[in-house]
């Protein structure tokens, strides 16, 4: 399927939507009642959860909001439940309340499906089902039922089993209506639907023969573009899309597009996962180049936003590409090569309560080992240096098992490539606006060390700003107490602090604004 290359004006969409709704109501696909719906919530296609197969987000201006998700058939047919799509019903459901799910759907070839409103595992008990026949034409379908007893919030879902379909199925937005439903309430639920964004899955070619899977979030209802863009770069680890949800919401609301992508070898990206700075930088560079070829994107107004390791990758990309409009680093470490790595290790040990004078000999032994790795020394020399590291850590006061654990954390392939760490040098070359943000509760990128290093690297850049945020951990969530990773799951989404979202959003809105002077000729 080919996606439209631009967003078209909305009025024709709503005229067609209303027409299809009337057809659906006439055909009995929507449950009529004497009174209007008591409550209606219309959900963006981003809330569809697919399983057992692959899917892709795309655009189609024939459905409200202009977004859809394309669900592919299984390569090997299975049971009806072996693949499909679902969406949680918002809120709790009182006993005896009627719930109706109305949504847009079509199939590449005619196919019959059984829709359901049901609970989760282990029973997946259904309280409503409906048989529908999909065709290649978009239509409105529905399933409606009365709750037999009270259901807790988020415990029930709209289910679309597709394991037997053997055909591509496209799904649009969903309206969940409570109480009796009539023609006006259904039409109203979609007529007032104005999502902030339309998401499109994209594929980016990188080297060598690697395809990165990404999602391009485009502002909705703000014209046809071309839009400024923020390329979002993840931190260390096997990370895929999903690390910047609140920042994406802010960007699209401001009329700025956002791109996120799976690291190579992760999610739907091909290639082999490895923490190699040169490869990571090449992939981010490829993402920028791919976006500049898209008609929806203004290639002269592209920002790079990187968190943690991404805050090292972003300056590296911008250092080689002076047409980047602005760079934002969030807990991005600042330094070059082994001297920086030494400072980082010593800083972590001081944070753990060890005096610098006591740990320095052990850290120096570790740096000597890493230098030998980089110099390609033979196995015997490496083994002797490994033994020396353990000996020095034991002399510091570490039990042998703890010393061996410390060595295992330091002597890793990523550290063998410390010569690729050039974030201080990269930052010092930038003349575009740079925002570098650190948190006082960050145990990994310690603000008291890193912020001064950032200010030194950016000293000759009058358009640079270094911000240290009180109470922010490495993951920039409100409510951090210790700042450790154990708190992350309890504090909401990554980069979820409204303070951080406002800081980054305001910066990008100003720096990417037309006529800001930051756009560079393509």
Automatic annotation (TrEMBL):
Database matches in Pfam families: Hydrolase_4
Keywords for this protein: Hydrolase
Protein's UniProt keywords contain Hydrolase: yes
GO molecular function, one term: serine-type endopeptidase activity
UniProt-listed GO biological process terms: proteolysis
Residue ranges constituting the Serine aminopeptidase S33 domain according to the UniProt record: 242-474
Protein's UniProt name: Alpha/beta hydrolase
Originating species: Sphingomonas desiccabilis
């Amino acid at each position: 399927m080919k996606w439209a290359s631009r967003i078209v004006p909305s009025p024709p969409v709503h005229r067609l939507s209303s027409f299809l709704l009337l057809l659906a109501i006439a055909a009995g696909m929507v449950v009529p009642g004497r009174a209007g719906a008591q409550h209606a919530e219309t959900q963006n296609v981003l809330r569809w959860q697919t399983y057992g197969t692959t899917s892709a987000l795309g655009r189609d201006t024939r459905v409200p909001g202009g977004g859809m998700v394309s669900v592919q058939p299984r390569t090997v047919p299975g049971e009806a439940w072996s693949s499909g799509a679902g969406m949680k019903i918002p809120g709790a459901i009182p006993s005896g309340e009627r719930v109706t799910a109305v949504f847009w759907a079509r199939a590449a070839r005619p196919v019959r499906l059984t829709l359901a409103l049901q609970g989760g595992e282990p029973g997946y008990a259904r309280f409503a089902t409906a048989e529908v026949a999909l065709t290649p034409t978009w239509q409105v379908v529905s399933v409606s039922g009365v709750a037999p007893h009270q259901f807790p919030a988020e415990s029930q879902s709209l289910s679309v089993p597709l394991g037997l379909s053997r055909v591509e199925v496209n799904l649009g937005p969903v309206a969940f209506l409570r109480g009796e439903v009539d023609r006006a309430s259904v039409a109203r639920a979609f007529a007032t639907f104005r999502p902030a964004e339309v998401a499109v899955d994209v594929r980016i070619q990188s080297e060598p023969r690697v395809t990165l899977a990404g999602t391009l979030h485009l502002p909705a209802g703000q014209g046809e573009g071309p839009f400024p863009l923020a390329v979002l770069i993840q931190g260390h680890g096997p990370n895929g899309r999903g690390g910047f949800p609140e920042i994406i919401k802010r960007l699209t609301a401001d009329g700025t597009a956002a791109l996120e992508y799976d690291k190579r070898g992760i999610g739907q990206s091909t290639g082999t996962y490895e923490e190699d700075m040169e490869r990571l930088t090449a992939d981010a560079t490829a993402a920028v180049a791919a976006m500049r070829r898209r008609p929806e994107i203004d290639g002269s107004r592209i920002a790079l936003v990187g968190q943690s390791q991404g805050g090292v990758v972003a300056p590296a990309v911008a250092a080689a590409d002076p047409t980047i409009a602005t760079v934002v680093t969030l807990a991005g470490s600042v330094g070059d090569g082994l001297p920086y790595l030494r400072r980082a290790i010593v800083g972590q040990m001081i944070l753990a309560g060890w005096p610098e004078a006591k740990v320095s000999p052990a850290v120096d032994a570790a740096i000597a080992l890493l230098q030998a790795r980089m110099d390609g020394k033979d196995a015997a020399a490496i083994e002797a240096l490994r033994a020396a590291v353990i000996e020095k850590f034991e002399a510091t006061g570490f039990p042998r098992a703890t010393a061996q654990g410390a060595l295992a954390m330091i002597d890793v392939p990523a550290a063998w490539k410390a010569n690729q760490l050039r974030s201080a040098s990269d930052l010092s070359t930038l003349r575009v606006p740079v925002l570098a943000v650190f948190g006082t509760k960050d145990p990994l990128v310690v603000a008291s060390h890193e912020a001064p290093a950032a200010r030194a690297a950016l000293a000759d850049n009058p358009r640079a700003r270094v911000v240290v945020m009180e109470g922010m951990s490495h993951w920039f969530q409100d409510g951090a107490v210790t700042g450790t990773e154990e708190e992350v799951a309890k504090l909401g989404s990554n980069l979820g602090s409204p303070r951080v979202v406002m800081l980054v959003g305001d910066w990008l809105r100003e720096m990417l604004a037309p006529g800001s002077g930051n756009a560079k000729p393509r």
